[in-house]
Amino acid sequence: MRAPVLMLALLLAPALAGVEQPLPIVPRPQSVGRQAGEYVLRAPVRIAVTGGGADLREVAGFLRDFLAGATGMAVTVGARPAGAAIVIEAGEPALPGPEAYELAVTPAGIRIRARDAAGAFWGVQTLRQLLPPDLEARGARIMALPIPTVSIHDAPRFEWRGSLLDVGRHFFPIAFVKRYINLLALHKMNVLHWHLTEDQGWRVEIAKYPRLTEVGAWRTERDGTRHGGFYTKAEVRDIVEYARCRHVMIVPEIEMPGHSTAALVAYPQFSCTGESTAVPTTWGVFADVYCPGKEETFRFLQDVLDEVMDLFPSKTIHIGGDEVPKDHWKACALCQQRMRAEGLKAERELQSYFIRRIDAYVRSKGREITGWDEILEGGLAAGATVQVWRDVAHVKTTTALGNRVVASPTSHAYLDASPASLPLRRVYEFDPVPPGLSPAEAARIRGGEANIWTEGINEANFDQIVFPRLAAMAEALWSRPGGAFDEFRARLDGGHRARLRALGVAFGPDDQALMRMTPFFDPATRRAGLRVERRVDGLVVRQTIDGSAPTPASEAIGEMAMFARPSAYRLQPFLNGKATPTSLTLTVDRHLAVGQSVTLAIPNSPKYTGTGVYTLSDGLRGTTDFHDGLWQGWEGEDMEAVIDLQQSTTIREIEVSTLQAMRSWILLPRRVAIWLSDDGAAWRPAAEMTHDVPQRREDAFVYPFCCTMPANTAARYVKVRATNAGPLPDWHPGAGGKAWVFVDEIVVR
Question: Which of 51, 119, 594, 681 lies most in the core, judged by the most C-beta atoms within 10 Å?
């Protein structure tokens, strides 16, 4: 009991002392009037409901349950306003629009007036934020609760204030989804964009196609563990109803025609090739997409959408439409036949045909589609909602075409990005309406979303990555322009952080990565090591050297670890005892070139510096993740390096380790040539190697160019040149652009 009252006293102390401090309400209301004094809420509490219907009584019931659970007071709901502590009214036409509300706390009582039940619910959330943060932990026993007197007039700037939750890459259980819905509602965010299907997993039960969840919902990770899960129809209905009671609309996303590998593993007959593979365990863009040349593909998708629309009452159904490789369509006789029959000149027009057919079907059911901004390619019916993700310029283009927009550009809205690259301030400064729009174009912008893709996020690190930036996005979407970041921070630090902590929410940094694992090489000892920087509490990095996956019982490393012997060191961060998706395997090698100086003919890109000047001779072998800190990269240039072995040395074998990640513009070099020298001036050719690996290969992989030297070969200097693949080919998404060459180690044995 004492802690909540003490917290309230601390919140009110500056105001009572004559220093005006902002009330810790997030998002910021449109106007707040402060008066001296308070209203003391005493048990028993009676809430009165006037106007409205069952939905308004439902709002009152939410407030009743919150107050009773938080304070232990007896709370009832009735219809007689006389003598009621809290009065909730709806149907006020004078308020500015849907979801608008007024909250007045006077010495005589509390009144919430709203246009509709949604506005009343947001008024309840504001009232909740006037109460002591510690009450969110629930279970207190308080018979008298002082509340500051205020007059608040408030309404949202945008109708669509959402967050995307990707459950395809990492599955989240029902309790977690409901918890997130509660946090969205607290911040007056009213859309949960539920990304239910992805290459790596199908997450919603479809009765007509059971293999979607029997097969497509599960994948076997590289370490042999099984990851997956799905939501039954009963569970989906329960979550949808749970969200509706909190005025959060759930918009399902069923990805098509791309990002559909999991579905096509289950039902390969709806692909162009008809070949069954495995549910992917890596991220990226995959060539397996739905085949628009087959009528059965559209029957399948219509069946799926019928069942989805039966589960979700939302007016809009998100159909994805982004990142669609056309490789298989170009090689598919049925797709080419479809193009001829429809008079389509290019595969991008075939994608537009696909989207228009799905759009027409969804409209025939009384719904409408939303899709990522690629659905505009080739033309789209006016009135469809386009979710812009690539950049703000696409917002202008889309509104000019007459389409409505939900803005979630990578520059401001991708909360899965590290706070180091997307800091709190930049999220707060997000404005879905770019400058230069006409009033009619600006009116087509429905709002925005905070996107949370989960390649690197699971239950263990979700809070630390998403918060406090979600609070900043909530304010950007609710409040009118003109808010000051420092004032937002004052409210955040003056009570809102404490409220979220009481709800069990953990915070990450505002503008730094949660942690950084940085491989390095010490030339003095010729040993590799790892530096660990931690910026959140409870984070521990554990390691194994026997190839097994680290567990919470594995050896922990401190701020620095040195690797004494060749081995594969597996390093796994744990947050509060749970493994996060971020892990690193450091393969430490020992060979003749380790620690020897390297001279580069062309400097590597400053974007990819590896471990520094010893990257190509540090004994650390790069992984398939080109961000692992072990690779050096050259954009559009050849790589040429000379290693000085310090003395004439017998050489048996030379290996050059390279990387291909085609979807990231990284291609294997066309050839690798090696020369040897005794003095660094006169060179003799030793080997020239090519490869026959297709550039179209989608998965990221490490490719070693190896050559065996004739017996008794000796040299002091080794020169290696890796020839760039040249401009990206016509079939590549970046056609004509510069390819990258990535090299991580020159091994001499």
Answer: 119
